Amino acid sequence: MRIRPASRAELPLLQEIERAAGEPFRALGMAAVADDEPPSIETLDRFRRAGHAWVTADSDDHPVAYLLCEEVDGASHVEQVSVHPSAARRGLGSGLLDHLAVCAAADGLSALTLTTFADVPWNAPYYARLGFRALPDDELTEGLREIRRAEASCGLDQWPRVCMRRELMGAVASPPRIVPVRTPRPRALPPRTLPPRTAGAAPPF
């Protein structure tokens, strides 16, 4: 497995990963999340062109996991990280987050942030094991508050949500199985180009 930037031709595959990865929510009574449409090709391509779309590719160079991010208030905000169920429980989600941590630290960003479901086992509890902590309301930046307002307007607050942050004290070593690929300093994305769903909407193990 290796991590590299997504190509435009692969964007439909990212949509397939998202659809397959959302299915586990159905068993939790969260069919609305499972049925949520993935980001459009246009939206995914904006992330790709900005240098904010990464994939984990298998031995045939076929994407089996992906991550989208953007800069929010001096941190790298994880918009989405999903792993196809056929490749789950191999550390691909944590590998993508570690890769992003290296890139974000090199770019001088202070932390990784995300919003996610508080009570879904593969959401907030999973990220807590990876070094993220839940943020109380008085620690939310204006950018995170804007994201939470957008999520609430889309109905995501019918299940408890939480903002989380992982501090970056400096670049950490990438796992040996990952081959990081650096891109030029990413350009800023237009605000909220991705319909708010959840970071780690599917099990990113």
UniProtKB/TrEMBL annotation:
Biased composition (Low complexity): 195-205
InterPro entries (alphabetical): Acyl_CoA_acyltransferase (IPR016181), GNAT_dom (IPR000182)
Segments for region (Disordered): 179-205
Coiled-coil region list: none
Sequence ranges assigned to domain N-acetyltransferase in this UniProt record: 1-151
Cross-referenced Gene3D superfamilies: 3.40.630.30
The protein's name: GNAT family N-acetyltransferase
Organism whose genome encodes this protein: Streptomyces chengmaiensis
